[in-house]
């Protein structure tokens, strides 16, 4: 990335909430002025992790420059920080520093920081204002939008959480420059998902995307389109009782693979890469999806370094068991999100017996 | 209590929620049939404490009799159970037992169980259905209604929580028969508060209330009137941005006394008894409230064994410091709920300098 892209703003609505999503290059320094306009209280708790110390310093300077008092909090990088113990630690730190109901929590980082700090904002003094400043591709297109927050239990990911909308989302595309390629690729798996959900036009843009991150102006536009898709879905179904399930495309088998691999063998986006391929295979069998879609998607996933073949070390029975345990499986039936064509989604499809297992096996190539 | 009172139902509304509050004698055995009518999932997590083992057995039998699967969970009695550690323990227990998003948490007990189990319901899998079966007077008139849930931090009570409405409230008045007199009196302090907020008619009923619990039919009616008052306030201001602050009458100074006494010298209702008297004194000075109201209220509080004089061991500076720390104090100004007359409430009153301290000192008689 080199050329500055013009900043773009998309407005999100969910329930009673309405908030702007700012996208642009170098706009992290706008965080302070943008929040000061909307803030009610004088203080913010700035939560980040050790991955982004330079960005945290910039965010702090921007907030302080706008006259806000900043309470800094850092958590260890990685999924292990999504715990109730961290919620308690941060809440005590906020209480000790005098954070009040009219103040805010600012989440600066990837999905882990956003999910943890988001749940803290939802529950500290029964709810304070929340700002998301996502710094990874995954967080920009997905986790920073729509209000899902939460922490993990040993029994499952995101088992304790809340739906809590931010009042401001600020995504500085330039922060992606510093990301490791593997992290960028993981975010791209969700971008591919949005291509499949949105339809042929976005799917084609995704399909011919150059090496990540790509030109800043174009990347801003790509992220904006993914975010806009998610915003529309959440506006229609904030609390996940209906169409929001479409966002689970690839996640039923993906989560099963992620869990069966002990959350180590595959990172989330890598498991989703495999999960998308399984969902497309099942879409062919259940709904007659053109097999060419899966072939095209496999090519683009592979080109970005995402797995398209399942490791023999992750056993099929363990994957199937994890799918059954998944909280998204309702009672006994497995309700999957599948496609008849790109952009044409079917919810609550229960594949014929044996087909999920077969689709997992086919991933072994 | 001996005569059976006819069961009464009041409907509560808050935000998008609408739920029935059932009041009556012996109706705990109706819990199963009443919930089975409204339940979506087949399982419930029944949370209670060691104070009510007999009631927990009855509740379990009633739920099972209605075809529901019951996962039992007991927590130690007392405020110490309002912790994130207990939330984690209960959430893991629920996850292990396979509680799903369509299932429910049933809170059977007093304010501690209701606040803890309520927050669990708000956050387990980002929110499951909640049933309150309050078994104390305090919980019936106050904490089981309106959706405030939460746990404590060392830094303050209810510092981590959520607003989460139940889908059913069932108050079996008969469960009050087994309560210690001190516990009943604590609940009565909140009843006196509702008398003051509601107006002369309810205040007079409260003023001439016989020894607790009193005749079942009349007690059911008294609780119904307090609950109805709270329901109306919550319907107007679920998220506590306006008129809900009226329910803080007596709680600004009351919380200060409770905290300064280390949560040991005075129980919540006892501190509220003193806090109400301080609020009435300030109401006289700030708003011209007739001094006869405070004299009448002091008589009824004393008659029910509630304190009307502040113990010398709880120092005024500690009380004032705790008031300043209270999360309900907004920035620097102290916003109090006061009265011009019974039923005529003023919100956000900031007493003249020195008057809060003087009102606390006057409590020493």
Key features?
homodimer; 365 residues; seven-stranded mixed beta sheet; 13 helices; 44% helix; globular
Overview of the structural elements:
Two copies of one chain form a homodimer. By secondary structure, chain A is an alpha/beta fold. Chain A has 13 helices and eleven strands. The first copy, chain A, has helices spanning 31-38, 53-65, 84-96, 111-123, 137-143, 181-198, 200-207, 216-236, 251-260, 268-287, 291-303, 316-325, 355-362, and strands at 8-14, 17-24, 43-49, 69-75, 104-109, 129-134, 148-153, 156-163, 168-172, 336-341, 344-349. Chain A has a seven-stranded mixed sheet with strand order 1-2-9-6-5-3-4, with helices on both faces. In chain A, strand 7 (148-153) and strand 8 form a beta hairpin. In chain A, helix 12 crosses helix 13 (355-362). The longest helix of chain A has 21 residues, at 216-236. Chain A binds chain B through residues 41-42, 84-85, 87-88, 91-92, 95-96, 100-102, 119, 122-127, 148-150, 153-156, 158-163, 239-240, 327, 330-331, and chain B through 41-42, 84-85, 87-88, 91-92, 95-96, 100-102, 119, 122-127, 148-150, 153-156, 158-163, 239-240, 327, 330-331.
Topology:
The structure is a homodimer of 365-residue chains.
Chain A lengths: L7 E7 L2 E8 L6 H8 L4 E7 L3 H13 L3 E7 L8 H13 L7 E6 L1 H13 L5 E6 L2 H7 L4 E6 L2 E8 L4 E5 L8 H18 L1 H8 L8 H21 L14 H10 L7 H20 L3 H13 L12 H10 L10 E6 L2 E6 L5 H8 L3
Parallel strand pairs in A: 2-9, 3-4, 3-5, 5-6, 6-9
Antiparallel strand pairs in A: 1-2, 7-8, 10-11
Helix pairs in contact in A: 1-2, 3-4, 5-6, 5-8, 6-7, 6-8, 6-10, 9-10, 9-12, 10-11, 10-13, 12-13
């Amino acid at each position: 990335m080199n050329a500055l892209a013009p900043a773009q703003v998309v407005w999100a609505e969910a329930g009673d909430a309405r908030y702007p999503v700012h996208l642009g290059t170098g706009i992290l320094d706008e965080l302070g002025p943008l929040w000061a306009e909307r803030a009610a209280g004088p203080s913010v708790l700035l939560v980040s992790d050790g991955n982004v110390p330079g960005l945290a310093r910039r965010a702090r300077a921007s907030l302080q420059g706008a006259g806000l008092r900043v309470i800094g909090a850092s958590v260890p990088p990685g999924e292990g920080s999504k715990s109730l113990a961290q919620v308690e630690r941060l809440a005590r730190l906020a209480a000790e520093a005098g954070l009040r109901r009219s103040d805010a929590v600012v989440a600066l980082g990837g999905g882990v920081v956003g999910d943890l700090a988001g749940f803290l904002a939802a529950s500290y003094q029964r709810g304070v204002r929340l700002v998301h400043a996502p710094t990874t591709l995954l967080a920009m297109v997905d986790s920073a939008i729509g209000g899902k927050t939460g922490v993990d239990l040993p029994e499952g990911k995101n088992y304790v959480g809340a739906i809590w909308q931010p009042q401001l989302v600020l995504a500085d595309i330039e922060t992606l420059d510093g990301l490791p390629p593997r992290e960028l690729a993981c975010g791209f798996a969700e971008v591919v998902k949005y291509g499949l959900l949105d339809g042929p036009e976005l799917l084609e843009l995704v399909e011919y995307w150059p090496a990540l991150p790509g030109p800043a102006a174009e990347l801003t536009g790509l992220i904006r389109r993914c975010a806009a898709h998610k915003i529309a879905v959440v506006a229609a179904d904030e609390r996940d009782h209906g169409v929001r399930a479409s966002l689970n495309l690839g996640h039923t088998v993906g989560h099963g693979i992620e869990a069966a691999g002990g959350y180590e063998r595959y990172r989330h986006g890598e498991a989703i890469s495999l999960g998308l391929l399984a969902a497309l295979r099942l879409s062919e069998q259940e709904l007659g999806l053109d097999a060419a879609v899966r072939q095209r998607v496999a090519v683009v996933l592979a080109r970005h370094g995402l797995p398209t073949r399942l490791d023999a070390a992750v056993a099929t029975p363990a994957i199937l068991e994890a799918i059954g345990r998944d909280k998204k499986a309702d009672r006994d039936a497995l309700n999957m999100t599948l496609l008849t064509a790109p952009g044409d989604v079917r919810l609550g499809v229960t594949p014929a017996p044996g087909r999920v297992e077969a689709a997992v096996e086919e991933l072994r190539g």
